[in-house]
Amino acid sequence: MADITRRLGWRHLRGAPTAHIRHHRGGKLLHDGPGLSFWFRALTAALSEVPVDDRELAMTFHARTSDFQDVTVQATVTYRISDP
Hints:
- By secondary structure, the protein is an all-beta fold.
- The protein has a domain at about 5-50.
- The protein is built from no helices and eight strands.
- The chain has strands spanning about 5, 10-15, 20-25, 30-35, 35-40, 45-50, 55-65, 70-80.
- The strands form three sheets. It has a three-stranded antiparallel beta sheet with strand order 1-2-5, with no helix packed on it.
């Protein structure tokens, strides 16, 4: 998660090394890459952050069979965004 601080109308973004950051102003790409740090104006900036490290998502599924038995299945999905 990026850290944004304020200084006299300007903002400073400090991104984590596991986050890909994009900074747009007026439809033009100004900054693009993982773990960036830069100053920007909050009123004219559009920022996006995409995690590029491994992420895990735990899921649980509940179902009932035809003979009314409860069935529970647990799963873990691991994914990584390779090219944001």
